[in-house]
Design brief:
By secondary structure, this protein is of the alpha/beta class. Helices cover 58% and strands 11% of the residues.
């Protein structure tokens, strides 16, 4: 067992982050000096290479490989990278603390690498049980520690925007506390000013909801975009582009493009391309062409004045088509 290598996995990203920081502090490693590598963006080769180098002007160094989705089957790494990681773990270097982070509830039982790591390095699972976690009560208690109250509507809006993960919830909560310091009470305007959701993330969520025919979620995400002053016509344009991306991805797969090739073609991250390929493989051509055709028709009606620019998109997304 290599006790200088760690695998932290589970859906409680906030606790994984805190456990990682505590581990480095216990080993007297400055958090600012820790080297962090995104496995989905960069692979793991460079991370392992640097983990093998001696620390500079310190007794120990810290290396983190985050988004290790190759351990749950969402992405893959090549055989050389897998062997290099195993070899590093077998070295048992005392000068390097390596932490591998995965945000999935479970690891792939088909992955020989996942099986190797759980058997040969320190492995901990961090799960946030939704049944035992009242997010509304949690936010109110955290705010109360700082003598802050939050209005009911503001609380709902905050949770709608921030509760994408436990880590994001806490990050946004700290921002809200700092912003509202000494105000006493937080209203919806305060939430809107502090907590924003990226348009790109919302659109991605909206497209997935459309494909899954989750009508309630479709309209909820659409309304959230409108509340943040994103124009209806802009939403339609971006959604149309996302459906075209899925169509292009299907075509690239058909002519033999691999995941790496598609990443280079679009210039997107490994994680994002994973979901593009997943959508391309699971969505019928007919549905894609039909949706794109409806979006083009709606765009024409709006531009020609045959339908109101706000009513048209509302009807489209309300139908969930």
């Amino acid at each position: 067992m290599n006790r200088n290598c760690y695998l932290f996995y589970g859906n409680d990203i906030f606790r994984i982050k805190k456990e990682t920081e505590l581990l480095f502090q216990e080993n007297e490693i400055d958090l600012d000096s820790v080297e962090v590598y995104d496995a989905e963006e960069e692979g793991i080769d460079q991370a392992i290479t640097n983990a093998m180098t001696m620390p500079f002007m310190a007794d120990k160094k810290g290396v983190v490989i985050k988004n290790a989705s190759f351990l749950d089957g969402r992405t893959t790494i090549n055989e050389n990278e897998a062997d290099k990681l195993k070899s590093f773990c077998e070295l048992k270097l005392e000068e390097t603390i390596l932490v591998i982070q995965n945000n999935s509830d479970s690891l792939s039982n088909k992955s020989s690498l996942a099986k190797y790591l759980t058997k040969n390095i320190v492995t901990k699972k961090f799960i946030q049980d939704a049944k035992d976690f009242d997010v509304y009560d949690y936010v109110k208690k955290e705010l109360a520690k700082h003598n802050l109250r939050i209005q009911p509507f503001a609380l709902t809006q905050f949770i709608n925007r921030a509760n994408t993960s436990h880590e994001n919830l806490n990050n946004e909560l700290q921002k809200l506390i700092f912003y509202a310091y000494k105000r006493g009470e937080i209203d919806a305007n305060c939430v809107f000013e502090v907590v924003s959701r990226e348009v790109e993330d919302n659109i991605f969520e909206l497209v997935n909801a459309l494909l899954e025919k989750d009508h309630e979620k479709v309209f909820k995400v659409y309304e959230d975009l409108v509340i943040h002053n994103v124009k209806s016509t802009q939403i339609l344009a971006v959604v149309a582009n996302k459906f075209l991306e899925i169509l292009y991805t299907k075509s690239l797969l058909e002519i033999g493009y691999r995941k790496f090739d598609i990443e280079k073609f679009f210039g997107y991250s490994s994680g994002r391309v994973y979901y593009m390929i997943k959508n391309a493989q699971e969505t019928d051509d007919e549905l894609l062409y039909e949706t794109i055709d409806k979006l083009e028709t709606l765009d024409y009606k709006i531009k020609s004045g045959k339908i109101d620019k706000d009513l048209g998109p509302q009807l489209f997304f309300l139908a969930g088509k």
